[in-house]
Amino acid sequence: MKALSIAATGMMAQQTNVDVISNNIANANTTGFKASRAAFQDLIYQSMQREGAVTSEAGSTRPVGIDIGMGVQTAGTVRLNTQGGMVATENQLNVAIDGRGYFSVTLPDGGTAYTRDGSFQLSPEGEIVTMQGYRVEPGMVVPENTTAVEINEQGVVMAYVENDPVPVELGQFNLTTFVNEPGMRPVGNNFLLATEASGEAQVVNPGDPGAGMIRQGYLEASNVNVIQQITDLISAQRAYEMNSKSIETADQMLSAANQIR
């Protein structure tokens, strides 16, 4: 009886589904977080009777076959890169991307990570950095005695120093886009890495077609729809229970067969 192993694959798949949904719910308030969903595909089939098999000397063929599937497996987890809502913070170093694009961040090992989290801070040297203290590219240093920092929609950063009414331009935030954003690898700390699946990073300026605009004083909220996630969680739980019931039924049938005298 194949039902035991088939139902077991269903239970494992739904466990993965619950894990993904739980992570989404846990990050419902994480800045710039993008929800994921688990994608599944059926396993190979055991063919008991082939479709199109000849059934008579006259050449009649079987219109349908007898194919028994071996269960289900997880094909991947797909990140949903829809726009999150804008949350006003009134912090002049907080910036959100309205549209596509990612901020580039230099990691301690010299590599580059990408993030939608624009909750930036200043290092002791006045450099604009992430919450972990990693430099945001291109590196920009805010001068001492700066009274205000202004960042326009094109990502140009200007600083008002002391009583000078004319701001000093510090640089411009770059944005990075990818052909296949779901192909990026999440590594935690709101960081993603480029992979062969994502394609090469394309450096663009805010305001360029398809790049997005910069919103100063805002952060992008998570795009997790908690109500939808809870609904999906209930569906996954019910699917898990049904697969468990299939195992129970198969066990009862095997037990009945073993008791035949």
What is this structure's SSE topology?
Elements: H1 3-26, E1 36-42, E2 45-49, E3 66-69, E4 72-79, E5 86-88, E6 95-98, E7 103-106, E8 112-115, E9 121-122, E10 128-129, E11 146-151, E12 156-161, E13 168-172, E14 175-177, E15 185-188, E16 191-193, E17 202-204, E18 213-216, E19 218-220, H2 226-258
Antiparallel strand pairs: 1-4, 2-3, 5-19, 6-18, 7-8, 9-10, 11-12, 12-13, 14-17, 15-16
Helix pairs in contact: 1-2
Question: What this model shows, in words?
Answer:
The chain is of the alpha+beta class and 261 residues long. It has 2 domains: 3-47 and 65-81 and 224-258, no CATH class; 86-217, no CATH class. Helices cover 22% and strands 31% of the residues. A 3-stranded antiparallel β-sheet has the order 11-12-13, with no helix packed on it. Strands 1-4 form a two-stranded antiparallel ribbon. Strands 2-3 form a two-stranded antiparallel sheet. The longest helix has 33 residues, at 226-258. It is elongated, with a radius of gyration of 27 Å. The relative contact order is 0.21. The mean pLDDT is 91.
* Average of pLDDT: 91
* Poorly predicted sequence stretches spanning 5 or more consecutive residues: none
Number of strands: 19
Q: Would you list the SSEs in sequence order as H and E?
A: HEEEEEEEEEEEEEEEEEEEH
Bin the helical content.
10-25%
Strand order of the largest sheet: 11-12-13
Overall shape: it is elongated
Can you count the helices? 2
Alpha-carbon distance between the termini?
20 Å
**Rg over alpha carbons:** 27 Å
**Count of the domains:** 2
Reported for the largest beta sheet, the result is: 3 strands, antiparallel
Strand fraction equals 25-35%
Q: What structural class results from the helix and strand content? A: alpha+beta
